[in-house]
């Protein structure tokens, strides 16, 4: 199976009336910090509060008319996208999630009328449940990242980036299962082959990073993270997002929980933005000096805003945050 810019252009037409064309805005603070134009693609402004609506809508709109309903596994935002797109088409949706998914995300999905199944403590267990539902109940399964229509949908972000700033030299993409990074890299490199696309993950449980290193999909232990949307494996039978990320990403950089905490404060105090930990990994890498030879203009994708607001309050107040069985030491923001 191969994917090209044509699939991304088709996706852009398909999702036009469901997903918004998120604005690309400069961050004066981060531009000054790195000495280049630094731009934020505000996917937190999507109607479900995250970019995942793009891929989910492209997949749901392409289903045959006689489909019985849809199912998926999710770390939260994909389920929300699938629930939203399914509701728009009047379809039943069942979203399978592990117990690591924060309550704010589970509630958001229920509010869209989807059925929710909480199974196990890992994304792999949630995946097994959605595969069982697909088999036993004849529902169409929509992978959060390893599906050509989902990748093409997420790729519309790369297309819009290049339309808005044809001179972009570097794109920093939060990386988990790799649907976003694969789609964005595909679009950006088709239009501007010399541009650099870097994937960024948290340093604990970074499945794509470990898989690229190993040369094949590997399993990692899933742990609680401020970047909860970046948790979960890439699937041992990954067909698309793994080879695309392996072949198209120029680099994969890892950031710590402390670096994510600080970047969330930066985005809030400097750009006044409420965003999830997963969104700020590019900013975290920049602030931590992990992106030395950065060529500009630079853009990063602010992927979503579906935070637990109590945790968000703790972070912007400089308080400690409990993450699973560890306590992340808080620190007041200092520019
Ligand atoms: C899913 C998600 C990501 C990562 O996308 P992948 O396609 O899984 O790599 C990043 N940020 C947010 C907010 C997400 O929901």
Total strands: 12
Percent in strands = 15-25%
Strand order of the largest sheet: 1-2-10-7-8-9
Tell me, rounded to a whole number, the average pLDDT. 95
CATH architecture of the largest domain: 3-Layer(aba) Sandwich
Overall geometry:
globular
Helix content: 40-55%
Uncertain regions spanning at least 5 consecutive residues:
none
- Annotation field: number of helices: 13
What is Rg? 18 Å
Distance between the termini: 47 Å
Structural class by SSE content: alpha/beta
Cofactor: pyridoxal 5'-phosphate
Protein name: Hydroxyectoine utilization dehydratase EutB
Keywords: Lyase, Pyridoxal phosphate
InterPro entries: Ectoine_EutB, Ser/Thr_Dehydratase, TrpB-like_PALP, TrpB-like_PALP_sf
Gist of the model:
The chain is of the alpha/beta class.
Question: How does this model look, in words?
Answer:
By secondary structure, this protein is an alpha/beta fold. The protein has 13 helices and twelve strands. Helix 5 links the parallel strand 4 and strand 5. The radius of gyration is 18 Å and the shape is globular.
Entry keywords:
335 residues; Rossmann fold; alpha/beta; globular; four-stranded parallel sheet; 13 helices; 12 strands; binds pyridoxal-5'-phosphate; 15% strand; 2 domains
SSE topology:
Elements: H1 5-14, E1 24-26, H2 28-34, E2 38-42, H3 53-61, E3 70-73, H4 77-88, E4 93-97, H5 103-111, E5 115-118, H6 123-137, E6 140-141, H7 148-164, E7 170-174, H8 179-191, E8 196-202, H9 207-214, H10 241-248, E9 251-255, H11 257-271, H12 281-287, E10 298-302, H13 309-316, E11 321-323, E12 326-328
Parallel strand pairs: 2-10, 3-4, 3-6, 4-5, 7-8, 7-10, 8-9
Antiparallel strand pairs: 1-2, 11-12
Bound molecules: pyridoxal-5'-phosphate.
């Amino acid at each position: 199976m191969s994917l090209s810019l044509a699939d991304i252009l088709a996706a852009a037409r398909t999702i036009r009336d469901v997903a918004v064309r998120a604005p690309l805005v400069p961050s004066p603070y981060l531009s000054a910090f790195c000495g280049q134009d630094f731009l934020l693609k505000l996917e937190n402004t999507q109607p479900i509060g995250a970019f995942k609506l793009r891929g989910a809508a492209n997949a749901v709109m392409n289903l045959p008319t006689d489909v019985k309903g849809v199912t998926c596994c999710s770390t939260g935002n994909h389920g929300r996208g699938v629930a939203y797109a399914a509701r728009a088409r009047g379809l039943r949706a069942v979203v399978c999630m592990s117990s690591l998914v924060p309550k704010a995300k589970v509630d958001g999905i229920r509010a869209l009328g989807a059925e929710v199944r909480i199974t196990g403590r890992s994304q792999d267990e949630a995946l097994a449940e959605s595969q069982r539902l697909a088999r036993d109940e004849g529902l169409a399964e929509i992978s959060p990242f390893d599906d050509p229509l989902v990748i093409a949908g997420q790729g519309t972000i790369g297309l819009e980036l290049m339309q808005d700033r044809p001179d972009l030299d570097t794109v920093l993409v939060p990386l988990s299962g790799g649907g976003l990074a694969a789609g964005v890299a595909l679009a950006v490199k088709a239009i501007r082959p010399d541009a650099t696309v870097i994937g960024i993950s948290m340093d604990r449980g970074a499945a794509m990073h470990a898989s690229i290193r190993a040369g094949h999909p590997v399993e990692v232990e899933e742990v609680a993270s401020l970047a909860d949307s970046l948790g979960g494996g890439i699937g041992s039978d990954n067909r698309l997002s793994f080879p695309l990320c392996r072949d198209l990403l120029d680099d994969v950089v890892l950031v710590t929980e402390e670096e994510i905490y600080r970047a969330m404060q930066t985005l809030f105090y400097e750009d006044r933005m409420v965003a999830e930990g997963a969104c700020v990994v590019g900013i975290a890498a920049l602030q931590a000096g992990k992106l030395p030879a950065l060529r500009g203009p630079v853009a990063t994708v602010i992927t979503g805003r579906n935070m637990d607001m109590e945790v968000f309050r703790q972070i912007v107040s400089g308080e400690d945050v409990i993450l699973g069985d560890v306590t992340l030491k808080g620190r007041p923001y200092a520019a």
